[in-house]
Amino acid sequence: MSSTRIGFIGMGLMGVPMSTRLLEAGFAVTVWNRNADKCQPLAERGARVAGSIAELCANVDVIMTCVSNTEAVSEILFGEQGIADSAREGQVLIDFSSIAPDATREMASRCKEEHGLDWIDAPVSGGVAGAEQGTLAIMAGGDTELVERVRPLLEPLSQRVTHMGPVGSGQATKICNQMLVSCNVLVMAEVMALAEQSGVDASRIPEALKGGFADSIPLQLTGPKMAARDFDEIKWHVKTLLKDLDMANALAKANGSAIPMAGLGAELMRLHGSKGYLEQDPATLVKLFSDRS
Amino acid sequence: MSSTRIGFIGMGLMGVPMSTRLLEAGFAVTVWNRNADKCQPLAERGARVAGSIAELCANVDVIMTCVSNTEAVSEILFGEQGIADSAREGQVLIDFSSIAPDATREMASRCKEEHGLDWIDAPVSGGVAGAEQGTLAIMAGGDTELVERVRPLLEPLSQRVTHMGPVGSGQATKICNQMLVSCNVLVMAEVMALAEQSGVDASRIPEALKGGFADSIPLQLTGPKMAARDFDEIKWHVKTLLKDLDMANALAKANGSAIPMAGLGAELMRLHGSKGYLEQDPATLVKLFSDRS
């Protein structure tokens, strides 16, 4: 499988370290990005830079994509000179983007029926650090045999690739992940403000709860920033959590499922975003519940 | 400090293993319980069993309490033949119970002013297993010098005693802990039901999210039970989470703080409890969002 030729589309914050790790693992990697300048770091490490998506598709066995949202995936697939125009029967597309499960299922059906292209949705969790260190969690949706076949390609990126079900299941699982994270960060903001109002030294809460039932990575990373009102370092964005909670609401609505906690979470996240915090770190959520600066 | 004589009131699920560990650490321990039968296991390990609270108070330097709620603490303190009738100036009370912070502050003031008794609120997290293994987290509220003075007494119970602020701060911190845990378990229930409705193999979610931003001890312990609808083993109770969320609401109301997520959490927990699940494991919360059995 190490002779498999990989194409990687999307040289963003995640795509650069992910394709770098694939290169370093010995795979032949061809990259493409709308703004070609961003391919330069990969070229320096030995990647082939394709001049077009068509050129990329012609030279690879597996096409990987990692872009920012559903619209961007759709454009790369079905836009002018997109993947769909160039894909060959038997090629496999692995989409690492975090996008809507229903759109994923529709695009995957169309790719298979019209172009013979197989689809695996494989959204990741773990951020830029996880991408650089190859410690991402990958939630995969797609045909079982196909997922097993591409597993060796994913090993440089993750020791934890979990197959969640048919196409779209990876995206639905990522939404579940984001529901848990977003609601937890909102409750943390409530907790920090309430603790301060109650005379508690809130800066000690992450330490006091460490290792217990209430603990989480966000409590240890974002909790201290909330307590200290330290918002300078932006590690992730309010707008990402809002986007994911809105996808959760759309999925729940489509399924006839009720998600009251995550539904309220979306509205609180929107309220916070509407006050100018969309591009800020979620640590700023404490300001929704406290006037202290 | 190992010559300190300890009195322990409340031989419940937590009190028995906690007082046992103090005995095994070499402290002289006198125990009392309303139903004296429950003192038997401690007597067999060498504890003195007091015939009354007065007898206990007369023979110890530090009085520890671990009972079920605010009313029970009040009764032990100020009820007929309670601690207040027998306490001596300079004795210290350490209350491990999880009770209301405002009631704690009122009772502590009254104890100090009328009886010279010092108070430390020291609610614990970690459950029966933590009590047995001495790995509880203790969230302490009280005078700084006093908390440092009793720290050696707490070592057999916990390597993590965090001083959170003045009297009542330990209880407020425990409420914060429970807000995070309860809301997280509710969102887990939403996630499990939504995942199933979306064609995801929900039983793989705890494994898929393990070690990531969405992970927590409840996701690993309670998540699999939700996915499998396995409710036979009752490790904790819906009624406890409801009690704690109601205490969170009372504290927030008293402070003028808003806690919308935990407020909705309380109502959802009450709704679930009203359907007959108060004495059941919180894993049953998945039934609030899914008819599957």
From TrEMBL, chains A, B:
InterPro entries linked: 6-PGluconate_DH-like_C_sf (IPR008927), 6PGD_dom2 (IPR013328), 6PGDH_NADP-bd (IPR006115), HIBADH-like_NADP-bd (IPR029154), HIBADH-related (IPR015815), NAD(P)-bd_dom_sf (IPR036291)
Residues of the active site are: 174
Keywords, sorted A to Z = NAD, Oxidoreductase
Top-level division of the source organism's lineage: Bacteria
Asked whether the UniProt record includes Repeat among its keywords, one would answer no
Where the record annotates domain 6-phosphogluconate dehydrogenase NADP-binding, the positions are: 5-165
- Known Pfam families for this protein? NAD_binding_11, NAD_binding_2
What residue stretches are annotated with the 3-hydroxyisobutyrate dehydrogenase-like NAD-binding domain? 168-288
Q: Which GO terms describe its molecular function?
A: NAD binding; NADP binding; oxidoreductase activity
Signal peptide residues are none
> In the UniProt record, does the keyword NAD occur?
yes
> Can you say what this protein is called?
3-hydroxyisobutyrate dehydrogenase
